[in-house]
Design brief:
single chain; three-stranded mixed sheet
């Protein structure tokens, strides 16, 4: 059996990759970055002292180590990326940037069954984000996994469009998506068309995976789905009550029991401007169909999950808004128990 095998986000977790904030670097604020974040008006760079950045990175690594220890105590094997200098320049033809971090493997690596796919990310600063994971990917490949990379995008200026309402959208010039645009649910995958994933990306993914999988296009949030909707287990969803109502749940999931979360606590952010809203508080990680790791500050979320029969394990995470990612973003399942199944 392949070392990589994961069909959903809720079967018993056996191996996972947890990212790292070490080496974090601020990329230039170009039109690519502005398409996804809202920096202060006129900002061209992030003015943060070295001491502040070092403190925030250290605190994030402390929290990720608690997450790692918690997972290991639950019998999960935890892997980490290689160290990297993310301040090095990167560029392709018409543009230049610098790398950003290796903190969020869920964004750049999509695991479907025994296949790992390197996502064609739409932000220029994230172009080389899979590189610190390459040794792990080679190990998984040698262990029997399929290793694919979506077409490397050009990310031309005309990629970054806005609709009539001023909402950022991606042009349909080439397949683009972050892996975190996708909800995995056995043989069904829900692909969020947004400013981090286009329809050409959904079409490429469907064709790459073949007839064993169905890729459903949805549009439930402006970027990733981990702060809007989770499949907790077959028949049960966790949904963002501030963004969704019953009619906006993806149609194939509309008959499932839904836990509506409406009270995220604001952890604040460590410097500059936040990369995520307070809804990053619902970015949870399921260990199995009964056990969920939640940010320690989100007591209301833990209470909601426990009222539905789940065990909620609180783990500290201070800088979800600072960096724009919570426990789901900062990890990527490599192996879970279970077989390929249709839950719909």
């Amino acid at each position: 059996m392949s070392a990589v095998r994961s069909f959903n986000d809720f079967d018993k977790l056996e191996e996972i990759v947890v990212g790292s904030a070490e080496g974090f670097s601020f990329p230039p604020i170009d039109n690519s970055l502005k398409h996804f974040f809202e920096p202060p008006l006129g900002a061209e760079s992030e003015a943060v002292s070295a001491a502040t950045l070092a403190r925030v990175v250290e605190e994030t690594e402390e929290d990720l180590q608690v997450l790692t220890s918690t997972l290991e105590d639950l019998g999960v094997r935890v892997r980490r990326p290689d160290r990297a200098d993310h301040s090095r320049p990167i560029g392709v033809l018409e543009w230049k940037s610098t790398a950003n971090h290796a903190l969020m493997p869920r964004d750049c690596l999509l695991v479907v069954g025994d296949t790992v796919i390197e996502a064609p990310m739409a932000m220029r600063a994230r172009y080389a984000e899979t590189f610190p994971y390459r040794k792990l990917l080679r190990e998984y490949f040698e262990g029997g996994a399929r290793w694919l990379a979506a077409p490397r995008p050009q990310l031309l200026d005309e990629t970054y469009q806005y609709d009539e309402a001023g909402t950022p959208v991606l042009a349909e010039l080439e397949p683009l998506f972050d892996a975190a645009n996708i909800i995995r649910c056995g043989s069904d995958l829900f692909f969020n068309v947004s400013n981090t994933g286009n329809r050409l990306g959904a079409a490429w993914l469907a064709r790459a995976l073949g007839p064993d999988y169905r890729v459903h296009e949805i549009a439930i949030s402006s970027d990733h789905v981990g702060t809007t909707l989770h499949v907790l287990k077959p028949g049960v969803l966790l949904a963002n009550a501030g963004r969704l109502d019953q009619d906006r749940i993806p149609e194939p999931l509309r008959g499932w029991k839904t836990l509506w979360f409406d009270d995220p606590q604001d952890d604040g952010f460590g410097f500059g401007w936040p990369r995520a809203s307070t809804w990053i508080g619902m970015n949870i990680l399921s260990v199995d169909q009964d056990t969920v790791i939640v940010p320690q500050a989100q007591k209301g979320l833990a209470k909601l999950l426990e009222s539905a029969g789940f065990t909620a394990i609180p783990v500290p995470y201070r800088h979800g808004r600072t960096f724009g990612g919570g426990f789901h973003c900062c990890s990527a399942d490599v192996r879970r128990a279970g077989e390929l199944t249709s839950y719909l």
